[in-house]
Write a structure and sequence with these properties.
Elements (H helix, E strand, L loop, with lengths): L4 E2 L4 E6 L5 E7 L9 H11 L17 E4 L21 E6 L5 H10 L9 H8 L16 H17 L3 E9 L2 E2 L5 H18 L1 H8 L9 H20 L6 H8 L10 H15 L7 E8 L13 H5 L8 E6 L10 H4 L3 E4 L2 E4 L7 E2 L2 E2 L4 E7 L9 E4 L6 E4 L10 H32 L1
Antiparallel strand pairs: 1-2, 2-3, 3-5, 4-5, 6-7, 6-8, 8-14, 9-14, 10-11, 12-13, 15-16
Helix pairs in contact: 1-4, 1-12, 4-12
Length: 441
């Protein structure tokens, strides 16, 4: 699988599958000297994981990460204070599959002869043959996106040190669209939403806040605890802090389920999606990503344009379209309306609009970068569909009996956010190097 790698200066290689032993991210290009913990990586992973609310699959994977390589296991000299700092070597993050039971494997075995419409199951069978990892869709499952979230968190942490913020939110679900929101307000809302999810996540509280897994433990000690957690998933979930939607809104100022910076629109999204889900069907929508603090000139021309690199987010499962700035709506504009005119204020360039989404010619303009992803409805639905027997090519009918998401949109925004961070950091390293070199010649 040569397609499981991204980046030039900041590189990420992922592996694993939905019902394999787990998933892995290997990061190269992480700068040394950065304190890093599994708790903070999990703080992003819990935003994507299933089973958190009524809009996600009931699968109970906790998505607990283990940092396997890339950190100093002890102070490099006595009292150096650099234990658990990145050391510049490849950083490996493991995400074991803990909610992997035979009853669910059997459901896939019983239906794997008949590919699910909308899934990769037919094409992957043609490509890989009978040994195709079709239990839970393997690496074509949405579970592989946990590797992107884990790697992207590290990239976001580096970017933040450089004054760059990357954040994302749900723009639309089931035809209900969030109104335009100022970037500052959307960032504040998203930060509050993340804090709410951490505070109310039972695994975050039980595993990390209460210290069952710590960065002082060795790898095998952590795995021993993970083996215990595998048997306690339901018990830990039952310990989830209880909080009503009203209390959440009053305390955090956010919607309890959907990360949409307009609470009323978020409520309408849930209602519209639930109505569709009640019929056995699923809903799609839009995710918006915003990046602020990007230096002007970041990016490359022609084949490696910054917007072209962001367009690779089509590699996220269920994403069928990526647009930057005004995107496809430019077809209805005139040149005068579409052009982002500029003027000077106090020695700085100020743009009158941002239809370009912060990128022209493949290079950042210094404005906020704005990217939107079109997310298709969850292909696994509870409705009879036409399919075939992939061994005999007989016509068949299929109805879902496996766990499913009413919509994927509410879980894809953290994937889009962290994928974007990977692209921006990769380009930032090149940008810094090029600008430094420019000063030397």
């Amino acid at each position: 699988m040569i397609g499981c790698h991204i980046g030039r200066c900041f590189q990420v290689t992922v592996g694993g599958g939905s019902y394999q032993e787990g998933l892995t991210s290997v990061l190269q290009g992480v700068p040394p000297g950065m304190l890093l913990s599994e708790q903070e990586i999990y703080g992003d992973l819990l935003l994507r994981k299933p089973g958190a609310d009524e809009l996600s699959s009931p699968r109970k994977e906790p998505d607990l990460p283990v940092i396997y390589t890339g950190l100093n296991a002890a102070d490099t000299i006595e009292n150096a204070g650099n234990r658990n700092h990145t050391n510049g070597t490849p950083l490996t993050i493991l995400i074991p599959n803990l909610d992997r039971h035979f009853i669910h494997i059997k459901q896939y075995q019983d239906t794997n002869r008949t590919p699910r419409p909308g899934h990769a199951s037919y094409a992957s069978f043609v490509k890989y043959g009978p040994d195709d990892d079709s239990i839970g869709a393997g690496i074509f499952s949405g579970r592989y996106t946990s590797t992107i979230v884990a790697a992207g968190y590290v990239a976001k942490k580096v970017l933040k040190k450089c004054g760059i913020e990357v954040f994302s939110y749900v723009k639309e679900i089931a035809g209900v669209r969030c109104p335009e929101i100022a970037a500052e307000k959307a960032l504040e809302y998203t930060d509050n939403y993340k804090r709410m999810r951490r505070d109310l996540d039972p695994f975050y509280q039980e595993i990390y806040i209460k210290g069952r897994v710590t960065m002082e433990m060795r790898f095998l000690e952590k795995l021993k605890v993970f083996a215990e957690i595998e048997k306690e998933i339901d018990a830990i979930r039952d310990k989830a802090p209880k909080s009503s939607p009203k209390t959440i809104r009053e305390k955090y100022g956010v919607h309890a389920v959907v990360n949409c910076p307009d609470i009323e629109a978020a409520g309408d999204m849930v209602q519209a999606c639930s109505k569709i889900s009640a019929t056995g069907d699923s809903a799609g929508g839009l995710v918006e990503v915003v990046v602020t603090g990007v230096p002007a000139g970041l990016g490359e021309p022609v084949f490696n344009k910054l917007d072209a690199e962001l367009g690779k987010m089509l590699g996220i499962g269920a994403v069928k379209g990526v647009e930057v700035g005004a995107g496809f709506s430019v077809k209805d504009m005139t040149g005068y309306k579409n052009n982002d005119q500029m003027h000077s204020e106090n020695g700085k360039v100020v743009f009158d609009s941002n239809n370009a989404g912060g990128i022209t010619g493949g290079l950042a303009t210094g404005q906020p970068i704005v990217v939107r992803l079109a997310v298709k409805p969850t292909p696994t639905i509870d409705k009879a569909q036409h399919t075939i027997d992939k061994y005999t090519l007989e016509n068949k009918q299929l109805a879902a009996i496996t766990r499913r998401d009413p919509t994927i949109v509410a879980r894809i925004w953290p994937v889009a956010e962290n994928y974007t961070a990977l692209v921006i950091l990769d380009n930032l390293i090149m940008h810094y190097g090029y600008q430094m070199l420019k000063q030397k010649v």
